[in-house]
Amino acid sequence: MFDFGIAGYRPAWLSGRSDLARVHGDRLRALAGRTLTGVWAVWDLGDDEWFRDCPVLFDFEGEQVEINHQKLGDLSLTWNTIDPTRRPVRWPGFDLSWRPEPIGGLQALRGLPLRAVELLEWTGEDVAQGNVDVSFAFETGRVTVFNALDENGLSFAPPGPDQRRHPLQ
User: What's the chain's average pLDDT?
Assistant: First the structure.
């Protein structure tokens, strides 16, 4: 199993909203009310940019969810397996490092209580139909980790017209 250059990381790939909700729904739902205390992403030091292939870590007062997309519909959620302060990222040919809140918009969400978690299902008439993204809604903002065609993407916008919201309540 490919560990994305992160010692101890074992992605658990799922596909589809029902599988994701069945396996992780209760734990995601339990994050509501907790404060976002940090977000970590892997940074490519050579190109000075976000390395989108590795998981994005969201820490809610010590409960860390690790989100990663690959291929067209694979999504892995793992919990509390990565310590970004102690585990370097080793990927041949790249100089990579964990960074806290490296993407604009994340700093504004740190310190806010989570209002809700939503699974967003892509309903467009294309090959991405059925893809699932994880969205964290706060009182004054939102962040969604979406499938950017074999890597992670981040959005701070509300769900679009081709995304069906599935609140975890």
Answer: 95
